[in-house]
Specification:
- With 238 residues, this protein is an alpha/beta fold.
- 43% of the residues lie in helices and 21% in strands.
- It has one domain: Vaccinia Virus protein VP39 (Rossmann fold, 3-Layer(aba) Sandwich).
- The chain contains nine helices and seven strands; from the N terminus they run αααβαβαββαβαααββ.
- Strands 3-2-1-4-5-7-6 form a seven-stranded mixed β-sheet, with helices on both faces.
- α2 packs antiparallel against α7 and α7 packs antiparallel against α8.
- The chain is globular.
- The N and C termini lie far apart (58 Å).
- 39% of the residues are buried.
C-alpha cells in the first residue's frame, strides 16, 4: 500500500511548477468519480449554481470554459446557443466527457491559454480558479482572449455569512474528507479541497483582483449565503 501524501496548496509551496503538477496528478486520480463526488458533497446544489452562473451569460458566440473538466458547464453553454470549448490541463478529466460531439476539448492551463487575442465572446470558470497556480495571471489571460466587450463569469467557493460559517466549517473540515475517503478512496484530495477553499480570496478581494486585471463593470452575487459566489466582468469595449 502506498502512503498518501498531502497535496500542497499554493501557500504551502513556492514552487509553482510543483504545485501545478500536484494538482494535475490529483485530478487524474479523482477523475473517475469526480461528478459523483460533487453531487454527494453539495447534495446536487452545484448543478443549480452552474445553471445560475449561465443565466448571466450572453447568448451565442464562442465560449471557453476554463478548468472545464467533464464538460458539465460547457453543455449548458451549448444549450444557450454557444459554440463551447472545454479547456482543462487534465486529460483524464476531459476523457470523462469527451464522447460529447457538441463540444471541443483542448488541453491547456489557465495561465497560458492556447487561444488568440480577442477571439472569444465568453470565458467561464467553475470551481477552477482557486486550483490555478497563478490566478492573477489566469485572469489576465482570460481578458486577453476575450473580444472587446466580451464577458467573464467565475463561479467559485467563497466566504459564507457569519452565522453559517461555524456550521460550514465543521462540515468542510470533517464531512468532505470522509466522503472523499469512502466514495473516491482519496481522502488527501478532499483535504486539499477544504484547504484550497479556506485560502481562496473572499468576494471583495476577488472583485478587486478582476478589476486590477482590467475587467470593468465587475459584480458578484452570493449563492447559498456566500458558500459560493458568481463574479462577472467585461473586457472594455475600446
Amino acid at each position: 500500500m502506498t502512503e498518501s501524501r498531502p497535496i500542497p496548496t499554493r501557500s504551502k509551496t513556492p514552487d509553482l511548477a510543483r504545485h501545478r503538477a500536484s494538482i494535475q496528478a490529483m485530478f487524474a486520480l479523482v477523475a473517475p468519480r469526480y461528478d459523483r463526488m460533487n453531487d454527494l458533497m453539495s447534495m446536487g446544489i452545484h448543478r443549480l449554481w452552474k445553471r445560475r452562473l449561465l443565466r448571466s451569460a450572453l447568448r451565442g458566440g464562442m465560449a471557453v470554459d476554463l478548468a472545464g473538466g467533464t464538460g458539465d458547464i460547457a453543455r449548458l453553454l451549448v444549450r444557450r446557443g454557444f459554440q463551447a470549448v472545454v479547456c482543462d490541463p487534465s486529460v483524464p478529466m476531459m476523457q470523462g466527457g469527451s464522447r460529447d460531439p457538441a463540444l471541443r476539448w483542448v488541453a491547456g492551463v489557465g495561465e497560458d491559454l492556447p487561444f488568440a487575442d480577442g477571439s472569444v465572446d465568453l470565458v467561464t470558470v467553475g470551481f477552477g480558479l482557486r486550483n490555478m497556480s497563478e490566478p492573477e495571471r489566469a485572469l489576465a489571460e482570460a481578458l486577453r482572449v476575450l473580444k472587446p466587450g466580451g464577458q467573464f463569469l467565475c463561479l467559485e467557493f467563497s466566504k459564507p455569512a457569519g452565522w453559517l460559517a461555524p456550521f460550514y466549517d465543521l462540515y468542510s473540515r470533517h464531512g468532505i474528507p470522509r466522503i472523499g475517503a469512502l466514495v473516491a478512496g482519496k481522502r488527501e484530495a478532499y483535504e486539499y479541497l477544504v484547504e484550497s477553499i479556506r485560502e481562496f480570496p473572499d468576494q471583495e478581494t476577488l472583485k478587486g483582483m478582476m478589476q486590477q486585471a482590467g475587467f470593468e463593470a465587475v459584480t458578484y452575487d452570493n449563492l447559498s449565503f456566500g458558500i459560493a459566489a458568481i463574479h462577472a466582468g467585461r473586457k472594455p469595449a475600446s
